[in-house]
Specification:
Layout: H1 2-16, E1 20-55, H2 67-86, H3 91-114, E2 123-151, E3 154-160, E4 166-174
Antiparallel strand pairs: 1-2, 1-4, 2-3
Helix pairs in contact: 2-3
């Protein structure tokens, strides 16, 4: 019974006296090498140009200025006079009516053709066009020094802005 009671008491007592000690050691650097990395930068720039754009306008609507009616009347009168000159006897009336009809159609068509205006020629306007492009540049960039030391069989690496002579190692020991 004494053994069962003493063993935990001894273990608890040893835990009360357990301590931790921390200290810093200086370890001499074996190698110190500069390290570089390839860095690519993309710089945007705008490329612009002027472009001629063709602009079409709707043709003007045909205008009815009455010239077709006037041409038809003049053509009908002229055709009737000519038909009257050609015909003879009872055919004279038929020739006059036929000449008037043909003259009316011809006069109307001629008057309407003269009133036709062609569509206007195409016009152009200048528009500014732009696009974004990128210029890529690659260069080696200095990242720092890789300082290497050995501490109790272990390799220690520390990066810095300049070469180091020593690396400080924090050591913690518990007993």
């Amino acid at each position: 019974m004494k053994k069962i009671f003493c063993a935990p008491l001894l273990l608890f007592g040893s835990l009360l006296y357990a301590e931790t000690i921390s200290f810093t050691e200086e370890v001499r650097v074996i190698t110190s090498k500069p390290e570089y990395r390839m860095v690519t930068t993309r710089t945007p720039f705008q490329e612009c140009w002027d472009e001629q754009i063709e602009v079409h306008y709707a043709p003007p609507p045909p205008h009815n200025d009455g010239s077709g009616v006037v041409g038809g009347v003049i053509g009908g009168v002229a055709g009737g006079v000519l038909g009257h000159q050609i015909g003879g006897g009872s055919g004279k009336t038929a020739a006059t009516v036929g000449g008037a009809i043909v003259g009316t159609l011809v006069g109307k068509n001629l008057a309407e053709q003269n009133s036709y205006s062609p569509p206007p020629p195409p016009m152009y306007r200048t528009e500014r066009r732009c696009t974004t492009r990128y210029e890529e540049k690659s260069a080696e960039k200095f990242m720092g020094y890789r300082n290497t030391a050995n501490y109790k069989g272990q390799s220690i690496v520390k990066y810095s802005d300049q070469p180091l002579e020593f690396i400080h190692v924090n050591v913690t020991a518990s007993y």
